[in-house]
TrEMBL record:
Tree of life domain: Bacteria
Entry keyword Transferase: yes
Keyword Cell membrane listed: no
PANTHER family: SULFOQUINOVOSYL TRANSFERASE SQD2 (PTHR45947)
Listed InterPro entries: Glyco_trans_1, Glycosyltransferase_grp1
Gene3D superfamilies noted in UniProt: Glycogen Phosphorylase B (3.40.50.2000)
Domain Glycosyl transferase family intervals: 198-360
Gene Ontology terms, MF aspect: glycosyltransferase activity
Source species of the chain: Desulfobaculum bizertense DSM 18034
Alphabetically ordered keywords of this record: Transferase
Name assigned to this protein: Glycosyltransferase involved in cell wall bisynthesis
Length: 404
């Protein structure tokens, strides 16, 4: 059989991740090294070209991998953004043509999927969209925004498209993508809720924990404002934030401006083991994502439940479609710092109710688990396109689940 030549396009610094794994360092986020191992298994004795959209610039050779990074993501807006996206897609396609891939995996939505994906499909390259993104739907604006991606993903030459967890997959269906080819995927469980005892509310100085990108759309400003409101109400909450991103300095300045800097710890990029330790120590995990952020189902929610730490979540569509208020979590109105503060206060003011929230994190965790793992999607899809058969995993498509 012809050796595989895998083209992988995604965000993040892949070369640094490979180096960290080889050096025995800790992973920065859940399943980071698992995903590298899965791609290794896919590549076998072939080659892999990885394009990192937001790292670099560099070109690195690492065993059977060639990793390109060049800050391909456009930084403009409006019409200029679309022009720059087309230029970036041409740059990416030039790299792809020179590599001559037998398979292409696109782990980025938006212009990467619609522009580069279309070019690859038209040149006969099998394409797997492997996403972790919510598709806004409903209304003319979203219909226009989704028109290109729906057309591409419904193309018969794309035999399978996969998204992280069911709500994100349901959003694809609602946007107009045929459910027969949509397969929900998940990371394998690295920890189990049963490995940690339920928590009791005994701490006099409660800690709320955030882990994720430092982005305004992730709702971090609401959390900082909520800390101030809680202090005004006599609740000495402390916020611990892990993660990096373009708005990190802005958030540090905001904490100073609000007068809560002494009650907020910005830990920056931290190892996943440290994240889990901080969750164990915290009383609540807060995930304040705004509706405009295209969440799949972030790992921080799984990890909160695995450490038996109740979660305070915004009412992002992905969250409310997956979980039940009062079962391991509570919901507040996204973008509303008063609602966020109220939800944190209510979760901390009653020890018995808190104990129920912690006890039911196991049920909440089971509710969001999906049977298909990331590795399975890669291997099943690649085998199917090589043999000209339908992917076996279509038996677990969204349509198959709904028809069961």
């Amino acid at each position: 059989m012809k050796k595989r030549r895998i083209l992988l396009v995604q965000y993040g610094d892949y070369a640094e991740a490979l180096k960290a794994r080889d050096e025995g360092r800790e992973e920065n986020y859940r399943a980071q090294f698992y995903s590298l191992d899965a791609v290794d298994e896919l590549v076998q004795d072939g080659e892999c070209c990885v394009i990192c959209l937001d790292a670099g610039p560099y070109e690195v050779l690492h065993g059977s991998y060639t990793v390109y990074a060049g800050h391909y993501e456009p930084q403009t807006h409006g019409r200029q953004y679309h022009k720059d996206a087309e230029i970036a897609a041409e740059r990416l396609f030039d790299v792809a043509k020179s590599f001559e891939p037998t398979h292409a995996i696109l782990r980025a939505p938006g212009w990467v999927l619609t522009r580069l994906g279309r070019k690859l499909v038209e040149h006969g390259v099998p394409v797997l969209p492997l996403l972790a993104d919510y598709f806004p739907h409903g209304g003319l604006k979203n219909w226009l925004r989704n028109k290109s991606v729906v057309s591409l993903l419904n193309d018969e030459r794309i035999v399978l498209c996969s998204n992280h967890n069911r709500p994100a997959c349901c959003s694809m269906k609602a946007a107009g993508i045929t459910p027969e080819k949509i397969v929900p995927w998940d990371w394998p469980a690295s920890h189990l809720p049963e490995d940690s005892p339920p928590k009791e509310l005994t701490h006099q100085h409660p800690v709320v924990f955030y882990a994720g990108m430092m982005l305004t759309e992730k709702g971090v400003p609401e959390l900082l404002h909520a800390v101030v409101l809680l202090h005004e109400r006599g609740i000495p909450v402390r916020a611990v934030l892990c993660g990096v991103g373009p708005d990190e300095k802005q958030f540090m300045d905001l904490a100073q401006e609000l007068g809560c800097a002494d009650s907020v710890d910005f830990l920056g990029q931290t190892a996943n083991s440290t994240v889990l330790q901080k969750m164990h120590e915290a009383q609540l995990v807060v995930v304040p994502s705004r509706h405009e952020y295209p969440e799949g189902l972030p790992s921080v929610i799984y990890e909160a439940f695995e450490t038996r730490t109740p979660a305070v979540l915004s009412d992002h569509p992905t969250f409310v479609e997956s979980l039940r208020d009062g079962e391991g979590c509570r919901f507040f109105t996204a973008g509303d710092e008063s609602s966020c503060a109220d939800c944190i206060q209510e979760s901390l003011q009653d020890a018995a109710a808190y104990a129920v929230l912690s006890e039911t994190t196991e049920a909440a965790w089971k509710r969001i688990r999906c049977p298909v793992a990331f590795r399975e999607v890669l291997l099943d899809w690649a085998n199917a396109v090589e043999h000209g058969t339908a992917p076996r995993l279509l038996e677990q498509s969204l349509a198959a689940e709904e028809g069961a």
